Amino acid sequence: MNAPFQARAGLRDPFTAFVCDDATADMLRPVAVEHGWSPEKVNKGGLRNAVQSLSVSASPNILFVDLSESGDPLNDINALAEVCEPGTIVIAAGAVNDVRLYRDLVASGIHDYLLKPFTVDQLRDTFAHAQMILSGPRGEAQAEKPHVMSAVIGVRGGVGASTVATSLAWLLGEKAHRSTALLDLDVHFGTGALALDLEPGRGLTDAIENPSRIDGLFIERAMVRANERLSVLSAEAPIHQPLVTDGTAFFQLQEEMRNAFESTVVDLPRHMLIQYPHMVHDAHVAVVVAELTLAATRDTIRVLAWLKSNAPQTKVIVIANRVPSGGALEISRKDFEQSIERSVDIVLPVDGKLAAQAAKLGKPLAEVATGKMAAPFNQLSNMVLSHASEEGAAAAQVRDSAAPAKSLVGNLKSMLSKPKAAAA
């Protein structure tokens, strides 16, 4: 419904409301007039009427819906999302005073939830904020922040790649202030949504089954919002349901996320490198997560060789995860680095207490970590952004050098002018 998508403001009504009682309607109409909106756009009927009306007409820029007569507000809001176009800012009102409901509604995509009875000033404030979002320079902001795509790959199962991916996505959203998508491609056993205390929904499985449905509207409805800047596309497909796809859906998902978000983090199971090698082609950075064990060393060598052959343009960051502080290592860091013929970029120490705390709170490890534990995560985020900017600068340099006639003439002129300058 609302951010991170930009509304086509000129093609829509600026405001529509669907309310359940006369008192709310009487409060809304004069405020609507203050904003230059027609008071006739305040309709009776609540959310049910809103769903029926919007199923046959264009969505407004700002939509006010009354949930007072709704028996299941969260499901009804999801039904509204099915008929609501991208870019619509939804403001809901209701009489249920429940913090969890408020969080669930905001996570589902609404802009704000007003508890009845609310005041005229509260109404004005939420409308003012909604208009500020609509008029904000989103296009310019995204132009200033070129899209960054990173793929997080665990060299073996259980090395903690999903934990790293979730933390990286959270950091890009909260610390780097980028609208970020987390795409968890472990369709049967993914933990991207679980780590953020979210229900994964059916978005990813629907995309795999019907790739032709994937567009900007599908992305908005399918993504589950973790917070204002982070959205997740994950799944818990039935174990008896095999993954049957040629990879088209994954490619299209990447394309749409590139258009809709400023950053994408792909949690990429290692077996998908073999089946769908194109998944890494557009990634600016590949984050390879390993442990200091013999098996992980062997597989790190193989994954790095694969990346060098199949995605030479992608920058690689190697993480040694869950490294104990004592000397109880299966293989030393020095031997590991000698074996993989490169240095480890980041070391994440093991901290069972912190991991348990993050799991109980339903938060990424990077959000819970403090002090020395937080430093490696911040280093990872900074490295991903710097590598991506280096690649962008390199691409720009290649583009600049792609003007052969002009640069050739320029070189000839400079060569001819040198003797003259020397003579002078």
Plain-language structure description:
This protein is α/β, with parallel strands linked by helices. It folds into 2 domains: 9-136, Rossmann fold (3-Layer(aba) Sandwich); 142-400, Rossmann fold (3-Layer(aba) Sandwich). It contains 18 helices and 13 strands. The chain has helices at 22-34, 46-54, 73-83, 99-107, 120-135, 138-144, 161-174, 192-195, 203-209, 216-222, 248-260, 271-275, 294-310, 333-340, 352-361, 365-368, 374-400, 404-423, and strands at 15-19, 42-44, 62-66, 89-94, 112-115, 148-154, 180-184, 224-225, 230-233, 263-267, 285-290, 315-323, 346-349. The strands form 2 sheets. Strands 8-9-7-10-6-11-12-13 form an 8-stranded mixed beta sheet, sandwiched between helices. A 5-stranded parallel beta sheet has the order 2-1-3-4-5, sandwiched between helices. Helix 14 (333-340) links the parallel strand 12 (315-323) and strand 13 (346-349). Helix 7 crosses helix 17. The chain is elongated. The N and C termini lie far apart (69 Å). Mean pLDDT is 83; it is low at 2-10, 137-143 and 398-424.
Layout of SSEs?
Blueprint: E1 15-19, H1 22-34, E2 42-44, H2 46-54, E3 62-66, H3 73-83, E4 89-94, H4 99-107, E5 112-115, H5 120-135, H6 138-144, E6 148-154, H7 161-174, E7 180-184, H8 192-195, H9 203-209, H10 216-222, E8 224-225, E9 230-233, H11 248-260, E10 263-267, H12 271-275, E11 285-290, H13 294-310, E12 315-323, H14 333-340, E13 346-349, H15 352-361, H16 365-368, H17 374-400, H18 404-423
Parallel strand pairs: 1-2, 1-3, 3-4, 4-5, 6-10, 6-11, 7-9, 7-10, 11-12, 12-13
Antiparallel strand pairs: 8-9
